[in-house]
TrEMBL record:
Coiled coil: none annotated. It is found in: Cell membrane. Pfam families: BPD_transp_2. Keywords: Cell membrane, Membrane, Transmembrane, Transmembrane helix. This is Branched-chain amino acid ABC transporter permease. The chain crosses the membrane at residues 32-50, 57-79, 99-119, 131-151, 179-197, 228-249, 269-292, 299-319. The lineage of its organism: Bacteria, Bacillati, Actinomycetota, Actinomycetes, Micrococcales.
Length: 353
């Protein structure tokens, strides 16, 4: 491709309303404040709520960020991400049980497995789009569910994988107490979120947005759309794998639920609830759903799905861009920083990224 064509492609991608703004967070005081608030919230979370619930929020937040990277910026809705969350959970658990590795290493092994699994699935799936892409990913996830369920000698089948240790280089406080485990796992969560942010705010991320908005034009400019989609699919799977591995080890148990289609549906709900294409919205959605489910379960209420489903319907009807996306758009309107983008499904206010 010639240099003028590359320049034109970059300009087309950057001119998209959803293109990531240039520059680091330090160029905006508001962004620095937002980042600082997020870090403070992450640090104080186990002090204000039950530490295992805080760990669940962190894991689901990273899982939702991973899906938002695929859905919000590549325009691909996956109903099979439970395969990467759950597959990594089983591999991390088995690694910790049989090899006795510290949990950060076990989680990384699980994430590598998730990425290796995602590569062939992505190669076959990205040739389709819309509901067809979603159904293909769901089919692959159900295949993994069947394998895990039938391979009882390794995975425990319906009984799950039990007694997963949270080894951490012999530090007993981390290995035995959920409070300290949260802080030991937090750098991996933050690192995963930083990676997602870096992908979005890079030339690669701008091309992703271009392939989402107009794949035909991106191809005409010389970009291999399928290759970009496979790459972001693998990155998304790796981040989901980190989240799934941490979730499994923090609970000391891996169940079939981790590879079930309901898990894929839950992370989609979290992402849409917070706001597609915002990253921050995934975190907000995880906080809302995990705390809501915990409170309902603690009260003995059995119809948790009814409540969470009702909340989802209300948000979809009243907040077109999700909770975070709607708030970010309202702030942008009031400050006059940029006009609101009327495209459905892309919450792209600068304050929301």
């Amino acid at each position: 491709m010639s240099a003028p064509t590359q320049t034109t492609a970059r300009g087309a991608a950057a001119s998209s309303p959803d293109a990531a703004p240039r520059g680091f967070l330090g160029r905006s005081t508001r962004r620095w404040l937002l980042l600082a608030a997020g870090l403070v919230l992450a640090l104080v979370l186990p002090w204000v709520i039950y530490p295992p619930v805080a760990m669940d929020i962190a894991a689901w937040a990273l899982f939702a960020v991973a899906l938002d990277l695929l859905l919000g910026y590549a325009g691909l809705l996956s109903f099979g991400h439970a395969a990467f969350w759950g597959g990594s959970a089983y591999v991390a658990g088995l690694t910790a049980v049989h090899w006795g590795l510290p949990f950060p290493l076990a989680v990384l092994v699980g994430a590598v497995f998730a990425m290796a699994l995602a590569w062939p699935i992505g190669m076959l799936s990205v040739r389709r789009s819309g509901i067809y892409f979603a159904m293909v990913t769901l089919a692959f996830a159900q295949m993994l569910f069947f394998v895990v369920n039938q391979w009882r000698g390794l995975t425990g089948g319906e009984n799950g994988l039990q007694g997963v240790p949270a080894g951490f280089f012999g530090v007993e406080a981390v290995e035995r107490e959920a409070f300290w485990f949260y802080y030991a796992a937090l750098p991996m969560i933050i690192g995963g979120m930083w990676l997602a942010w870096r992908v979005v705010h890079s030339p690669f991320g701008r091309v992703l947005v271009a392939t989402r908005d107009n794949p035909a034009r991106a191809r005409a400019l010389g970009y291999d759309v399928d290759r970009y989609r496979v790459m972001v699919f693998v990155i998304s799977a790796g981040l989901a794998g980190v989240a799934g591995g941490l979730f499994a080890i923090s609970h000391g148990f891996v169940s079939l639920q981790e590879v079930a289609w309901q898990t894929s549906g839950k992370v989609v709900l979290i992402t849409v609830l917070g706001g597609i294409g915002t990253l921050w919205g995934a975190i907000v959605g995880a906080v809302v759903i995990v705390i809501l489910e915990d409170q309902l379960a603690s009260s003995g209420f059995d119809g948790i799905g009814i409540i969470t489903g009702s909340v989802f319907i209300i948000v979809v009807l009243l907040f077109r861009r999700g909770v975070w996306g709607t708030v970010a758009d309202a702030v942008a309107r009031r400050t006059g920083r940029r006009p609101a983008d009327e495209a459905v499904g892309a919450a792209d206010g600068e304050d929301g990224r």
